[in-house]
Fold this sequence. Notes:
Blueprint: H1 3-16, H2 29-36, H3 40-52, E1 56-59, E2 63-66, H4 71-76, H5 79-82, H6 87-92, H7 94-111, H8 114-129, H9 133-151, H10 154-167, H11 178-197, H12 201-219, H13 225-235
Antiparallel strand pairs: 1-2
Amino acid sequence: MSAVDKAFQGLRHMIATGRLGAGERIPSEGELCEELGVSRGSLREAVRMLAALGVVEPRQGSGTYVSQLRPEDIIGSLSLTFELLPLTGLLEVYEIRRVLEAHVAAQAAARCTPETVRTLFSLIEAMEAIDDPAEATELDHRFHAEIALAGGNPTLDSLLSVFRARSRKYQVFTLPEGPELRRKSDEDHRILATAIADRDPVAAAGVAQAHIAQTERWLRAFMPPAEEDTLTDRTEGRA
């Protein structure tokens, strides 16, 4: 284990065990270096790594503090590594997204307010009226984010946001069949929003899961044939 890893794991252990709680100032560099047996340079690098993950917050002139450790913030930091996933990796985790989007859609249907319903249909109308594929993709993201927000679980909202952000790198609406894909997507959105407005969790969950499965199939258009065969084999347990 390198000195940086040793410092990183030492600080992580202090936080995980509750020795350093949310919002607390971490000990001075001198104290930590002595306790962990590392140099100041290694310790600072470990602190930078934890800061990038949203675990600690350096404050100018005040020191470094443990963050509030909100689940949604910690989950959101996954974007740092999730953005590196190749398309094959993204498609492998789409099963997770299907399950989670269905769950938050059901929760949104059970908890929705008139304001949520108005927002959803307003976003649909904007999507249907716009020609630019990039802007349509952004509105699509906002539509699903609104549903996740209405679901009432900030952690799930944050995780799904990470999934959607990676998916948006692949502009399916720019494919040759883009106009037809947009038409089908808009149609799905209306059906989903209607199920939520009707406060029908079962219908909302089914529509959401089918919609994400369709998006997964569209994303496969970006994959070279050889990679597609490999992913199919792995999914079916043949490789």
